[in-house]
Each structure stands twice: as C-alpha cells, then as structure tokens.
Amino acid sequence: MIKTGLFGGSFNPIHRGHIHLARQLLRRAHLDEVWFLVSPQNPLKQDMRLAPEEQRLEMVRIALRRFKRLSASDFEFHLPRPSYTWNTLQALSRDYPDREFTLLIGGDNWERFPQWYRHDDILAAYQIAVYPRVDSPIDPATLPANVMLVKAKTVDVSSTQIRELLRNHQSVAGLVPPSVERYLLKEKMYV
After folding, report:
1. CA angle, 37 as apex, 36 and 38 as ends, to 5°?
2. What's the CA gap between 78 and 80, in Å, rounded?
3. What is the pLDDT of residue 46?
4. What was the pLDDT predicted at 144?
C-alpha cells in the first residue's frame, strides 16, 4: 500500500509555510507522498472569498513542481459541493484502493473536529496526523489511538497576510515560491 497524506485547504494562495509543513509531515508521519487537495469551498468557511479554484490549483501545481513526493490534486472539484472530508475520503478510497490515506490537519482543525460532518466515521476508518499550532496546543494523552501528534515547525506566514500585501501593492517575495510570485503578479491576483 502507498501511504498518502492528504493536506486539504483552500490554498488562497499557497505559500512557503504550506510547503515547509508538508515536507515535514511527509517524513515525520512516515508517508510516501502528500497530496495537496485544493478545496473548492470549505463548508466551515462559507463566507470566505476565494480566488477561482482553477487559479488556486495552478498555483499549487507551480509551487510543487520541484518536489517529487508532493503533488496538487483537483479531486474535490469533481465531487458534490460543499466538499465534506468524509465524502472525499470515501471517494478517494474507492478510486485508489492501492493507497492508505492519512488526513493531515492542524491543531486548530482538531479542536473543531467534532463539528465536521461524520467525524466519528472519519475517526473509525482513517489515520489522522495532527500538527500543533501556536494557538492550539494538543495534549497527546487525549488523542484516540489512530490519531498521531506530529511535531512540526510552522512558518509564520498566512494566505491572509499575502492577500493583504498584494491588495496594498506590496512585495510577497520570500513568502511564496518565486514561481508563484510571478504568477500572482502576472494574473493580478488579489489586487
């Protein structure tokens, strides 16, 4: 079985922090690969304005070109909306029976996990790797058997910060890969 980590998000836009984190999770959760599942719309963030999904997917593809074991996925684009994680996991398991999927989520999402659609079923059927966030500490003793705490350093950058900088016509150099910066400027994203 191929061990595949699923790193879902809006990636609005993708930044160096996402890539840095995924590379750590790849090693520390003992995965063969990580798929960046670009979400068309997070059910818990319905009011968030997103760039078009195809542009967000293209930025993820561009950002990950040089990383052999990291890849962009538009799998959720082809599922009913909103995209619930349970439905995505079921469809992925059906379409990729050669893979064992591990859900990769931050401590902030773990705190909200009881609000997720069919969260008990996710817990019963899949591995979950949780990485701590500064504002969401996790006590490993409280985690179920199939949930592992993965120590990973996060980079202090956010998609919100990048959008704000672009809106104010300021540089995002160093916050996103150079290829993504070029795409953002060429497409006049978030201005």
Report:
1. 105
2. 7
3. 53
4. 95
